[in-house]
Structures are given as C-alpha cells and as structure tokens.
Amino acid sequence: MKKFKAAAIIIIIHGVIEIAGLFAVLPIWLGAEAADWVPFAPPAPEILIGGVIWGVIRLIGGVGLLKNRKWALVLSAISCAIAMAAIFDVLPFGLMDAVLGSAALMLMLTGYFGQKKIVE
User: Fold this and answer.
1) What is the DSSP string of 60-112?
2) Model pTM greater than 0.85?
3) How much is the average pLDDT of 87-99?
4) How far lies 88's CA from each of 12, 53, 91, 113, 117, in Å?
5) Cα(12)–Cα(114) distance, rounded to whole angstroms?
6) What is the tens place of the pLDDT at every residue in 31-86?
7) For residue 88, what pLDDT is reported?
8) How far apart are CA 48 and CA 102, in angstroms?
9) 3-state helix, strand and coil shares in percent for the chain, rounded to the nearest 5
C-alpha cells in the first residue's frame, strides 16, 4: 500500500504542476513580455490546454489511488504511459513527464505485481 500512496502523491504533484503551468504563462497571454515571466519561450496554447486537461486527469487518478480504487490504478497507469510516450513532443516540459510519470508507473506496477514471477 505504501507504493500506491507514494505513486498517488507523485501523480497529484504532477497534476498540480501541469495545471500550474497554465497560470505561469497566463500573464504572457494577457500581454506581458515573456522575458519578464519565464526564462524560456512559452509553449503553444494548445499544449498548455492539453496540460491542464491531463493535470485534471492525473489529479482524479491520484485521489482515486489514495482511496484505493482499481479504476484509478488503470487511469493513472494509462496517464503515465501516455506521458512517457509523448515526452519528446513537448520538450523541455516533457522531462518532468518522464521523471514523474516513470517513477509513478514503476511504483504502481511493483505495488500491484510485487514479487510475482512471470511463469511459476
């Protein structure tokens, strides 16, 4: 259960960071100079909106994992796998997806399967 709780916390943090990304560049969309807010070029609006959607999905999955729901395990595993597959499309932000998504997925898989062998 400790692995699922750790994975849930990582997933919730990941979701919050993704949602916060929108608010970090919101001043740029409202007319502020990018150099005043972020040390890099802001991502395209569709990437940010997608990040918010995935952030909400991660929050739902993380909270469900904390409540020990099987659907949340599947939702979170799918979310982490998609994040790992898409990391190169959204660099440098994809690095966070790679680290957090991979860590959470490994914790969920080892928590679910434990020491079970492939063939007994």
Assistant:
1) HHHHHHHTT-HHHHHHHHHHHHHHHHTGGGGTTTHHHHHHHHHHHHHHHHHHH
2) no
3) 78
4) 22, 19, 6, 29, 33
5) 23
6) 666 555 555 565 666 777 888 898 999 999 999 999 999 999 999 999 988 888 88
7) 78
8) 21
9) 80, 0, 20
Report the half-sphere exposure of 46 (CA within 13 A, side-chain side). Answer: 1
Q: Decide: 64 and 71 in contact? Cβ < 8 Å.
A: yes
Q: How many CB atoms lie within 10 A of CB 35?
A: 8
Q: Which residue has the tokens 């940010």?
A: 48
**Cα–Cα distances in angstroms (integers) from residue 84 to residues 24, 34, 51, 105, in the given order:** 23, 28, 14, 10
Handedness of CA 6, 10, 11, 12 (dihedral sign): positive
d(C-alpha 77, C-alpha 49), whole Å: 21
